[in-house]
């Protein structure tokens, strides 16, 4: 664990819940007076606290110092991801978080299963756990749009990752088209995009390969590309 998450990190004193108290005392075997790094995942600051005391099985931490320590993400990748099975999305989130994906906007595509419902609270918890492990200083942004039309109205300028476009390994052409360090890429479901959705695309990128990627694999591939832009 690179740091401990606490929503009130920056306060002079913070109290840990029973779960984190157990983790520090029983798993990490920390003692009174020892120091631990804490983040609130909102301000890019790294706060160093010392364990002050244990009262009623809860630890109190005292702020010792702070410093600016943001994660370095050169290209902010914004995925527009058609909703697939929630458990698959949840499994992919830690990897995408480690790869520095800035934001994911989910939407119900024509080939999405309309009964799928995303548990945003659970997904945020997964991201917090991932940030603690990989050291990321900011929490990935997540939101949901009701359909393909609404997400296109919100974000008119995006690439679609689909068959029949330009080879996305041509990084120079992509770099030239990025605005404000934000690169938006739409990823479809396992069944891809419908003909009506494809008609809306202005810019298509593809692997020009015979292999077909799963939806979550396509997200991971695009996230890896963004690291090189």
TrEMBL record:
It is found in: Cytoplasm. Keywords: Cytoplasm, Methyltransferase, rRNA processing, S-adenosyl-L-methionine, Transferase. GO terms for cellular component: cytoplasm. InterPro entries: Alpha/beta_knot_MTases, RsmE, RsmE_MTase_dom, RsmE_PUA-like, tRNA_m1G_MTases_N. One of its GO terms (biological process) is rRNA base methylation. Pfam families: Methyltrans_RNA, PUA_4. Residues 16-60 form the Ribosomal RNA small subunit methyltransferase E PUA-like domain. It catalyses: uridine(1498) in 16S rRNA + S-adenosyl-L-methionine = N(3)-methyluridine(1498) in 16S rRNA + S-adenosyl-L-homocysteine + H(+). Its EC number is 2.1.1.193. PANTHER family: 16S RRNA (URACIL(1498)-N(3))-METHYLTRANSFERASE, RIBOSOMAL RNA SMALL SUBUNIT METHYLTRANSFERASE E. Specifically methylates the N3 position of the uracil ring of uridine 1498 (m3U1498) in 16S rRNA. Acts on the fully assembled 30S ribosomal subunit. This is Ribosomal RNA small subunit methyltransferase E.
